[in-house]
Design brief:
4-stranded antiparallel beta sheet; Helicase, Ruva Protein, domain 3; elongated; 10 strands; N-terminal domain of MutM-like DNA repair proteins; alpha+beta; 21% strand
């Protein structure tokens, strides 16, 4: 599944091609994504300019003159900017065509992605209004995580992956951040000190910034807005390295399941 760095990389990649452009038409080949694509999108977005392309968590926000399109890539979705005459292929479900001749095309083999339209403040949309702070923003601090975690027994990995606590820390980056901070992924969230949460916030930021610099992580299906894969996979320290030696101490990396997700860690370096 594309995580925050992949979504942000996509935003950066497509924005220069569509900012200020006027939507000419919208073609929907398959409306049945995770939720049906709103028919209002086809009625209300054409004729409007795209004024801003933003991101909230793993959602992309396309701000028009009147209204906002909210898009989630799902598990396997990606966006490409193509010429309007480019023939559609399998799983090309939605085209946003511009007067310039460019097309923003959404491809999603598994159809877990979604596209929504709102005329209201997108921050108040049901999918966005309960999201926690951005991990790269100033609102995420060690004392915030410390206070939110008190009396919580859940594993710290599940805690930092909860989008109501903090957005965008997916499975890969949670594993990598906890390793960098030396925190065992199964440790109870309420049993971690303020100092260790402060260190964890720093490592979350470091890991996400490095992933952004590398263009994200390619594991299965992700490509950015230009069709290029991310290269953060080459930087992974624990994720998907079961049995390989820890790059710090040499002990084998272990794997377990936490909340139905594969988790990777070093039993020597993480406590």
């Amino acid at each position: 599944m594309p995580e925050l760095p992949e979504v942000e990389t996509t935003r950066i990649g497509i924005a220069p091609y569509i900012l200020g452009e006027t939507v000419a038409r919208i073609t929907i080949r398959n409306r049945n994504l995770r939720w049906p694509v709103s028919r209002r999108l086809q009625r209300e977005l054409p004729g409007q300019q795209i004024r801003k392309v933003d991101r909230r968590g793993k959602y992309l926000l396309f701000h028009a003159e009147r209204g906002c399109m909210i898009l989630h890539l799902g598990m396997s979705g990606h966006l490409r900017v193509l010429q309007s005459k480019t023939a559609a292929t399998a799983h090309d479900h939605v085209d946003i065509e511009f007067a310039s001749g460019a097309t923003l095309r959404f491809n999603d083999p598994r159809r877990f992605g979604s596209i929504h339209w709102t005329m209201k403040d997108p921050a108040q949309h049901a999918l966005l209004k309960h999201l926690g702070p951005e991990p790269l923003g100033e609102d995420l601090q060690g004392d915030y995580l410390f206070q939110q975690s008190r009396k919580r027994r859940q594993a710290v990995k599940s805690f930092i992956m909860d989008s109501r606590i903090v957005v965008g820390v997916g499975n890969i980056y949670a594993s990598e951040s906890l390793f960098a901070a030396g925190i065992h992924p199964q440790r109870g969230a309420g049993r971690i000190s303020l100092a260790r949460y402060t260190a964890l916030v720093d490592e979350i930021r470091n890991v996400l910034k490095l992933a952004l610099a590398r263009g994200g992580t390619t594991l299965r299906d992700f490509v950015d807005g230009d069709g290029r894969p991310g290269y953060f996979r080459n930087e992974l320290k624990v994720y998907d390295r079961t049995g390989l030696p820890c790059l710090k101490c040499g002990q084998p990396i272990k794997q377990l399941r936490i909340a139905q997700r594969s988790s990777f860690y070093c039993s020597c370096c993480q406590r």
